[in-house]
């Protein structure tokens, strides 16, 4: 396994507000698959669990990087998904308890299963809540709040930042992890019958996101400062895994590209769509699962902001 430096983290899932159900296609690609539709809960849990497995080392690395003096005892994971971030935080801070918040009952159930398997179920409290709402349920007074790939989906992100600021204990830390874009899996000249297909898919997604998810790719530093935080640290990190890739990485690429197809199909030529479907056909000799040159490549930016 190859890792470019430094490592990053992504805890997987954040289903943050119910009105996103009205925009199904905008959330079936990029890490927009993190925003599950209840009828698709099984597929969502699978891809989030694969994300956690493939990037486990990166998640641990970013929790280790957080500029924390005294280990927190109370942590809130906003948009916890199936629990990759929650479990990493429990391991990083063995004295802490985590309140895991998500709108998806399926994700919260899966998180409970994983916490029980890890022997940490007594340290996890799950809360089902719409994080896009103006009022949140009681979440205590945490010393650390973690939000990975959820902030750019908030309908009013400035309000959400103020809510987190007011939620945190004085001196507490807010860790924001955001995604530079959908991960890449293919080398530049692939696939052979449609070289550059992945880049064209990304261009279609970028155009769509510019209209539908305007806060994706935002610089959260100034926003955090305006909300009253002091930004203690920021880093843009790179992930580069494989080849050779693991079985989990292959399944991760397959599931991710399936999600991406839902967002780009209408923008692709017939030839490109045919080539993409070949990659997604697990019975085809051209399946993504059979490519020995598959890599997992992505970038994340992390902000660590303190309530002073």
Question: What would you say this structure looks like, in words?
Answer:
With 308 residues, this protein is of the alpha/beta class. The chain is 35% helix and 17% strand. The longest helix has 18 residues, at 247-264. The protein is globular. Residues 1-39 have low confidence and may be disordered.
Spatial strand arrangement across the major sheet? 3-2-1-4-5-7-6
Number of strands: 7
Strand content: 15-25%
The low-confidence runs, each spanning 5 or more residues with pLDDT under 50, are 1-39
Question: Average pLDDT, to the nearest integer?
Answer: 83
How far is it from the N-terminal to the C-terminal residue, by CA?
A: 40 Å
Helix content: 25-40%
Order of helices and strands: HHEHEHEEHEHHEHHE
Structural class: alpha/beta
Coarse morphology: globular
The biggest sheet, with number of strands, parallel, antiparallel or mixed sense and barrel status, is: 7 strands, mixed
Number of helices: 9
**CA gyration radius, whole angstroms:** 19 Å
């Amino acid at each position: 396994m190859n890792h470019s430096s430094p490592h990053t983290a992504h805890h997987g899932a954040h289903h943050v507000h119910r009105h996103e159900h009205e925009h199904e296609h905008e959330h079936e690609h990029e890490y927009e698959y993190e925003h599950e539709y209840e009828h698709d809960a099984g597929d969502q849990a699978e891809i989030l669990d694969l994300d956690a497995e493939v990037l486990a080392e990166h998640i641990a690395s970013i929790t280790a990087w957080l500029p924390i003096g005294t280990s927190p005892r109370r942590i809130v994971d906003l948009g916890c998904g199936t629990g990759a971030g929650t479990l990493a935080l429990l391991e990083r801070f063995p004295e802490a308890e985590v309140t895991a918040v998500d709108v998806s009952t399926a994700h919260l159930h899966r998180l409970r299963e994983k916490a029980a398997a890890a022997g940490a179920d007594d340290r996890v409290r799950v809360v089902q809540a719409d994080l896009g709402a103006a009022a949140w349920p009681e979440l205590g007074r945490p010393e650390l709040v973690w939000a990975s790939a959820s902030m750019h989906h908030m309908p009013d992100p400035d309000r959400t930042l103020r809510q987190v600021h007011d939620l945190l204990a004085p001196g507490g830390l807010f860790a924001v992890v955001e995604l530079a874009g959908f991960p890449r899996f293919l080398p530049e000249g692939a696939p052979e019958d449609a070289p550059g297909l992945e880049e064209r898919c990304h261009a279609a997604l970028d155009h769509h996101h510019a209209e539908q998810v305007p806060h994706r790719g935002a610089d959260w530093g100034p926003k955090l400062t305006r909300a009253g935080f002091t930004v203690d640290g920021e880093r843009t990190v790179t992930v580069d895994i494989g080849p050779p890739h693991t079985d989990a990485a292959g399944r991760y690429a397959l599931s991710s590209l399936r999600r991406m197809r839902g967002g780009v199909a209408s923008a692709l030529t017939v030839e490109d769509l045919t080539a993409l479907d070949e990659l997604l056909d697990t019975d085809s000799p051209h399946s993504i699962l059979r490519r020995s040159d598959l890599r997992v490549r992505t970038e994340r930016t992390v902000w660590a902001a303190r309530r002073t």
